[in-house]
Amino acid sequence: MSYSFNWEILDRVGYFTMGETYSMEDAGHLNSQILEMLEHSRQPFHIMIDIANLRHYPMRMNEETWAMAAWLRHERLGWLIIINSGTNPMANFMVSVVGKTIGVKTRFVKSREEAIDTLHRMDLTLQAV
C-alpha cells in the first residue's frame, strides 16, 4: 500500500499519509479501512490526509473510482482535512471538486499542526479528548 495510517485521537481522528503513487488497489484498501472506522464510530469521525508526497493518482472519477470513495458519503464522516504544503495543486483541485459535489466538509491546510488546530476549532468536543 502506498499510504500509512496512525490515530491522531483514538476513535475520533485518523491521520493518513499518502505515498508518491496512489493506485486503484490502494483506493479499495483505503475505502474498506475508513468505512470500518466510520461504522464503529459513535461520533463524527474526522480524517486528516497528508498528500504532500502524492504525485501519481487516478485522474478520472468514473464508476469504479466513485465506488471506492464510499467513505466520503458516510453519515458519520466529520471533517476531511487535506494537508498539502503547496506541492500538489492538482490533487487539491480534484479533492475540492469532489468535496463540493457531494457536500463533504473539507479544509486545506499546510501542516499536521495546522490540521490539528483546525479540527479543534471546528469540533469543540475534541478539546475534551
Structural class: alpha/beta
Apparent shape: globular
**In whole angstroms, how far apart are the ends?**
30 Å
Number of helices: 4
How many strands, what sense, and barrel or not for the largest sheet? Answer: 5 strands, mixed
List segments where confidence is low: pLDDT < 50 over at least 5 consecutive residues: none
Bin the strand percentage: 15-25%
CATH topology: Transcription Regulator spoIIAA
What oligomerization state is this entry in?
A: single chain
Question: Order of strands side by side in the largest beta sheet?
Answer: 1-2-3-4-5
Structural write-up:
This protein has 129 residues and is an alpha/beta fold. It has one domain: Transcription Regulator spoIIAA, CATH 3.30.750.24. Helices cover 36% and strands 24% of the residues. It is built from 4 helices and 5 strands. It has helices spanning 24-40, 63-67, 89-102, 112-122, and strands spanning 3-9, 13-18, 45-50, 77-83, 105-109. A 5-stranded mixed sheet has the order 1-2-3-4-5, sandwiched between helices. Helix 1 links the parallel strand 2 and strand 3 (45-50). The longest helix has 17 residues, at 24-40. The termini are far apart. The relative contact order is 0.17. The mean pLDDT is 86.
How does the SSE layout of this entry go?
Blueprint: E1 3-9, E2 13-18, H1 24-40, E3 45-50, H2 63-67, E4 77-83, H3 89-102, E5 105-109, H4 112-122
Parallel strand pairs: 2-3, 3-4, 4-5
Antiparallel strand pairs: 1-2
Keywords summarizing the entry:
4 helices; 129 residues; five-stranded mixed β-sheet; Transcription Regulator spoIIAA; single chain; 5 strands; alpha/beta; 36% helix
